[in-house]
């Protein structure tokens, strides 16, 4: 299926989301890594003169420094918030972007929000963070963030602003991992933060209950490839900084799996059938939990089956 076909359907879906916040049962993964982050000091890496990567919160946090303070992309887990703050060398956080709503990206929101940071996110991410929601895979509820930790600057498609000498561009990555994913591009520093839309280290997660699916991931990776050049430092939520070539390789694997799993879904294959058929052996990538990956892929495909012409009778 062509990208444009997936997209036209996805676009029509956006308008229907306005009422999402009023739904009593919002659900999804609370985070992509459940390992608690209790480190008191975190590893940092200077990416450019003014952009720093903070690792182990438990995922990656990106910090841009200006004369007026810092701009963060993601705030880490709640119990890592103080360690993230300590990594900033006293710089005050003026702005914070959430790449999506999961707790390992938004746990520091309350701390930085309380200290006056303006929090930016996709409007759907704000909706998730503003209500209690159920996590099916863990059979538990996640509480809404206190008001002070919720995004106040929201958008639907894209936006840009300037912080110090840096132009910051941000935009929606429709239904790649959740339904509220965004990228944040530090244009002048050529650093592109992509959240869980790229996953070079952990198995890619599709939070199907929150709208993420493999077709959305392929589209989003294509959008990111258009933004990046050979010098761009691409920062995923977990794992090492990627080059554009590495992002392209990840895209190619995901596109192959999209083609195969959509085809097999129309033939009535379950995740278990696909595993037995060796679908994941067709790609160079190895998966830590192959069944879990395919289970989520299949859930996402079923939720979007009219996108790829699924017609099981
Ligand atoms: Zn996530």
What would you note in describing this structure?
The chain has about 325 residues and is an alpha/beta fold. The protein has one domain (about 5-245): Ribonuclease Z/Hydroxyacylglutathione hydrolase-like (Metallo-beta-lactamase, Chain A, 4-Layer Sandwich), CATH 3.60.15. The chain contains nine helices and 15 strands. The chain has helices at about 5-15, 80-85, 105, 110-115, 125-130, 215-225, 245-265, 270-275, 290-305; strands at about 25, 45, 50-55, 60-65, 70-75, 95, 120, 135, 140, 155, 160-165, 165-170, 180-185, 190-195, 235. The strands form three sheets. Strands 2-3-4-5-6-7-10 form a seven-stranded mixed β-sheet. Strands 11-12-13-14-15 form a five-stranded mixed β-sheet, with no helix packed on it. Strands 1-8-9 form a three-stranded mixed β-sheet, with no helix packed on it. The longest helix is centred in the last third of the chain and has 23 residues, at about 245-265. It is globular and about 60 Å long. The structure holds zinc ion (ZN). The site of zinc ion (ZN) has 5 residues, from loops. The site of zinc ion has 5 residues, from loops.
């Amino acid at each position: 299926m062509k990208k444009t076909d997936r997209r036209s359907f996805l676009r029509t879906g956006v308008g229907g989301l306005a009422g999402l916040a009023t739904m009593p049962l919002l659900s999804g993964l609370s985070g992509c890594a459940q390992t608690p982050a209790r480190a008191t000091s975190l590893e940092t890496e200077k990416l450019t003169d003014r952009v720093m990567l903070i690792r182990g919160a438990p995922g990656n946090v990106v910090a841009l420094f200006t004369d007026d303070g810092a701009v963060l992309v993601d705030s880490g887990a709640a119990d890592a918030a103080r360690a993230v703050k300590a990594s900033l060398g006293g710089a005050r956080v003026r702005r914070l972007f959430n790449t999506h709503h999961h707790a390992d990206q938004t746990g520091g929101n309350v701390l930085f929000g309380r200290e006056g940071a303006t929090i930016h996110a996709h409007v759907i991410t704000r909706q998730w963070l503003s209500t209690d929601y159920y996590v099916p895979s863990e059979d538990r509820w996640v509480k809404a963030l206190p008001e002070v930790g919720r995004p106040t600057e929201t958008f639907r498609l894209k936006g840009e602003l300037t912080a110090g000498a840096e132009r910051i561009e941000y935009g929606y990555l429709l239904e790649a991992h959740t339904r509220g994913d965004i990228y944040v591009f530090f244009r002048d520093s050529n650093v592109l933060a992509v959240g869980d839309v790229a996953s070079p280290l952990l198995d890619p997660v599709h939070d199907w209950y929150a709208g993420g699916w493999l077709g959305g991931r392929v589209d989003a990776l294509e959008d990111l490839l258009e933004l990046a050049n050979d010098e761009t430092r691409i920062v995923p939520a977990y794992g090492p900084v990627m080059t554009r070539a590495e992002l392209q390789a990840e895209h190619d694997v995901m596109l192959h799996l999209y083609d195969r799993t959509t085809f097999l879904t129309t033939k009535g294959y379950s995740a278990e059938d696909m595993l037995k058929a060796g679908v994941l052996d067709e790609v160079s990538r190895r998966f830590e939990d192959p069944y879990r990956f395919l289970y989520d892929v299949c859930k996402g495909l079923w939720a979007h089956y009219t996108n790829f012409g699924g017609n099981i009778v």
